[in-house]
Amino acid sequence: MADLKVLGWLGRSRTALGIHKSPQVRGWKQALLTLLALGLVAPGAALAEPPTPPPTDAELMHQALHRCRSVSRARREGIDRKLLQKLLDLERAHGVPEAYRGLTLAKACIESGFSASSRGDCKGGHCRAVGMVQLWPWTERFGVNRRDPVASVRFLLKRTAIGMRDGRLEKICGQRAHGDLDAFRVAWLRINRGPLHGGRQRCEGMPKDLARLQLWHRMVAYDRAAGHPTDAAAAAQSALTPAAASLATTPSPAAEAPKSIAQPGGAAEASPPKGP
Which of 156, 187, 161, 190 is nearest to 87 (CA)? Predict the structure, then answer.
């Protein structure tokens, strides 16, 4: 949890030093936050494993709603939670690796702030990217309604699976697409940014949505250590009677964490890192 303490220190030190209005410092902090979120790995490396146990759907939706920079507090209440759950269900149905669970929420956050009517890549009054995940016109050749978030995400996941089929990706990219995690990352990168880069096969790179997801996973670990409830947990707790709530919060021997899982220590006292 040392990196979480560093992230918390970064958030406090900027204000303490009176440099919070400097754009240069904001850029420097953002770069360092990104490096820490990636675990100080090379740009082409796979993401680290998620927390143990892996983030639940409720925890992933909590991160998507509360740590998406492009979503204001007022607009957050209007986001359809059932839609976010559908996107997570699609990931599960299409076999997204556990380490990448929640990447469609991260993509929707970055691309549109969860707005199905969003338009981007505009030039001369014409916008090429449309919808929650900002699909381009070429996707309509496959019968995709770009303004339908579920159909758009289903299309991306299907095309990613096709790219990984029969080991074809490993034949193109070699060891850079070896193993389930690297293969999925490269296939997702190619379907979202194109199969070619500078006339060569695109086999390296870390998509922004996966980098954002890595930070969310770290924040899940921080929230667990600090005892911060997710939206779903808080709502369920508030619905209980005082007596039932007392029973619900009393740990039982069977519910205790196994010894193999690290127990939260001093990290709960650290200030939480701010998401990108």
Answer: 156
pLDDT in tens, the chain (276 residues): 444 444 454 444 443 333 344 444 455 445 445 444 444 334 444 455 678 899 999 999 999 999 999 899 999 999 999 999 999 999 999 999 999 999 999 999 999 999 999 999 999 889 999 999 999 999 999 999 999 999 999 999 999 999 998 888 988 999 888 889 999 999 999 999 999 999 999 999 999 999 999 999 999 999 999 998 776 555 444 444 444 444 444 443 443 433 333 334 444 344 555 555
Distance, CA of 27 to chain centre:
21
Beta-sheet pairing, 119-123 with 126-130: antiparallel
d(CA 43, CA 35): 9
> Domain 38-232, CATH 3.40.5 — does that match?
no
Q: Where are the alpha helices (DSSP H) in the chain?
A: 2-16, 23-37, 57-66, 73-76, 81-93, 103-112, 149-164, 168-173, 180-193, 208-226, 231-238, 242-249
From the list 267, 276, 251, 227, the residue with the least C-alpha distance to 8 is 267
**Contact predicate 46/205, CB 8 Å:** no
Residue 238 buriedness (CB in 10 A; 0-12 / 13-18 / 19+) = exposed
Cis peptide before 251 (omega within 30 of 0): no
pTM score, whole prediction: 0.70
Which two three-digit tokens encode residue 230?
Answer: 């997710």
Q: Please report where in the chains the tokens 């509360």 appear, as a residue.
A: 66
Q: For residues 32 and 26, give the distance between their C-alpha atoms in angstroms, rounded to a whole number.
A: 10
The pair phi, psi for residue 126, each rounded to 5°, is -110, 125
